[in-house]
Inverse folding.
């Protein structure tokens, strides 16, 4: 089978890591004939083995309305020359109407899920500009597309939003890196404080601005020896960062919050090991690999009571009502005060993590789905 891997729109975020792992695995595959269309950001992270294959680097994303016109024309010309049996666009939408059967990896919840809760955190102008962008992106997702997504919840939402039959939507879960496979007995305590790790970029829908209020509620309950570890990059929106700091200082909890700044992937396992709780107050996801990383690292989870979180975590987490700092603090307090509960969540996480495929299994899963779709 001739497969055109289209990763031209991926420049940041988790999709980049997924594409990198997929490409690295398919480079070893001799069963199929591949052509890779990749962004310059992806190319910079690939080793020289890509140079032995058929590939094209796209310097300007086809998602750019005007500047992306030459890129879209180039990609169409590659399709015409290579004549693939199937196109797999690892980032959706691809902004191109291919003549070949196209499979989209669709994981952006904004495109298909109920976003009212997440939009409630956005200022007026940002809210409406985002809705306009989503309108354009949805235009490129059509009924004739085949879809790969990450959860059954997402599959149902995609089917309803785009009126795509469920037998054209396939679920291939995300996967955590094997560097997080750490034995629980190897975890070392580095502080007498309860360390509550919030490993999330400070985007609106991640809702980490709730943390000062949660910290205040914990203080009111008499908890003193704790600290929230947040990961706000120094070059992130200065206004947002200042507002977060002022809020923390205003309610008198800044001493309980420590900003680690930007955390490199290699640093993450150590930070999980040194933490007691993973706190993820997110309002909107398709799938967060952070949950899997915490489970693999033996860290109990406190997160929002939403369908995507419950599908991934099951009994490995305590849940609280979204945007409710008091209930979030109650769940954290409950966990701090109950060692047996901590052990129960950790054990559930260890069992749950075994139900997810390993890295090589997941990416071979992508190919199995492409083979199934091609044979239809």
């Amino acid at each position: 089978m001739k497969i055109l891997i289209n990763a031209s729109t991926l420049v940041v975020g988790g999709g980049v890591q997924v594409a990198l792992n997929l490409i690295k695995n398919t480079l070893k595959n001799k069963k199929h004939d591949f052509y890779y269309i990749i962004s310059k950001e992806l190319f910079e992270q690939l080793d020289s083995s890509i140079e032995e294959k058929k590939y094209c680097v796209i310097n300007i994303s086809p998602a750019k309305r005007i500047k992306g016109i030459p890129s879209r024309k180039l990609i169409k010309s590659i399709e015409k020359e290579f004549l693939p049996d199937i196109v797999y666009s690892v980032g959706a939408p691809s902004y191109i109407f291919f003549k070949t059967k196209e499979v989209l990896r669709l994981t952006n919840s904004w495109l298909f899920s109920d976003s009212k809760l997440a939009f409630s955190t956005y200022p007026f102008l940002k809210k409406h500009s985002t809705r306009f962008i989503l309108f354009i992106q949805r235009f490129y997702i059509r009924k004739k597309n085949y879809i790969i997504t990450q959860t059954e919840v997402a599959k149902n939402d995609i089917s309803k939003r785009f009126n795509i039959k469920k037998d054209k939507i396939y679920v291939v879960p995300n996967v955590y890196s094997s560097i997080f496979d750490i034995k629980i007995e190897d975890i070392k305590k580095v502080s007498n404080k309860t360390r509550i790790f919030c490993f999330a970029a400070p985007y609106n829908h991640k809702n980490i601005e709730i943390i000062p209020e949660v910290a205040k509620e914990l203080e009111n309950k008499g908890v003193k020896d704790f600290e929230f570890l947040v990961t706000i990059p120094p070059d992130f929106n200065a206004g947002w960062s200042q507002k977060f700091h002022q809020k923390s200082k205003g309610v008198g909890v800044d001493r309980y919050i420590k900003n680690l700044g930007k955390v490199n992937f290699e640093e993450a396992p150590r930070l999980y090991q040194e933490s007691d709780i993973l706190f993820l107050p997110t309002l909107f996801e398709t799938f967060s690999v952070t949950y899997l990383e915490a489970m693999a690292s033996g860290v109990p989870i406190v997160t929002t009571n939403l369908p995507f979180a419950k599908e991934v975590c099951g009994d490995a987490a305590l849940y609280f009502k979204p945007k409710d700092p008091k209930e979030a603090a109650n769940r954290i307090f409950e966990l701090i005060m109950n060692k047996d509960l901590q052990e129960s969540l950790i054990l559930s996480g260890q069992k749950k993590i075994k139900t997810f495929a390993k890295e090589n299994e997941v990416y071979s899963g992508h190919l199995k789905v492409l083979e199934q779709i091609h044979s239809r």
Remarks:
- The chain is about 40% helix and 15% strand.
- Residues 62 and 69 are 7 Å apart (CA to CA).
- The radius of gyration is 22 Å.
